[in-house]
């Protein structure tokens, strides 16, 4: 059985890094990820560089992406201006984003949830008119750093709105890594009834060590697409303590061990993780990466 892995390291993974990563390093990382067999890569973000300086080189990175059959690249866009920049770079897919919790949405987008819908609706409509694919992200589904618990009704409402706009897939995010498998079962069981398993993805953080357990729970609910970040890089600038996207190496190891197919070469993937670790000059959290490096001595 096939599971899709969406690599978000070049965007979600790097956006929290304080040390500026050279553009050439980002491009080489993406090349290595694609060489390892990843077919869906979120390359960067076209948000205002003042908010996320690390991704100010989005245009340069996206123009240099290796064009290979079957490989799809995307970038995060907040509005029509971001969409225009992404389109100019030749991208054929973008992602729009918002939160299920009001306070996080205000911190992240500077708008209420109600104010965000028309902006994303306009952006999505224009992207679809241009023949582009649009993915949607919903943050803080399993908990908010400012409000605590987030109602399932709010997550359902935002997800349904995004689907109605025309996004082909909604990534359901545990932005601060508080979810447990029971909660994952509850949330996805409800969302699957509203949408379908084919249009939902899981986006988990391993902040509290439950990331892969949550993937296993989502798999049991029929979810077959998961976001992950090379080496376990990442976190949200507007969610204190949210470090730790699940590692792509750890995710692929788990999936292969459970009998799922990903089309990804784990050896080449760990080499990409080792490259990223070398680029940053510090160990990365991925357990599979660290085990592979230890075996090499």
Low-pLDDT regions:
none
Order of helices and strands: EHHEHEHEHHEHEHEHEHHH
Rg of Cα set: 17 Å
Q: What gap, in angstroms, lies between the N and C termini?
A: 34 Å
- CATH topology name, in short, is TIM Barrel
Based on CA inertia axes, which overall geometry fits? globular
The biggest sheet, with number of strands, parallel, antiparallel or mixed sense and barrel status, is: 8 strands, parallel, barrel
CATH H-tier superfamily: Aldolase class I
- Please provide the count of β strands: 8
Average pLDDT works out at 95
Number of helices: 12
Give the CATH class. Answer: Alpha Beta
Question: What's the oligomerization state?
Answer: single chain
In total, the number of domains comes to 1
The CATH architecture: Alpha-Beta Barrel
What portion of residues is helical? 40-55%
Keywords:
metal ion binding, 8 strands, 44% helix, single chain, globular, TIM Barrel, 297 residues, 8-stranded parallel beta barrel, Hydroxymethylglutaryl-CoA lyase
Question: What would you say this structure looks like, in words?
Answer:
The structure is a single chain. The chain is an alpha/beta fold and 297 residues long. The chain has helices spanning 9-13, 23-35, 58-63, 80-88, 102-109, 113-129, 152-165, 181-194, 211-220, 248-257, 266-280, 287-296, and strands at 4-7, 40-45, 72-76, 93-99, 133-139, 169-173, 200-203, 225-228. It has a single domain, classed as TIM Barrel (Alpha-Beta Barrel). It is built from twelve helices and eight strands. It has an eight-stranded parallel barrel with strand order 1-2-3-4-5-6-7-8, surrounded by six helices. Helix 2 (23-35) packs antiparallel against helix 11 (266-280) and helix 10 runs antiparallel to helix 11 (266-280).
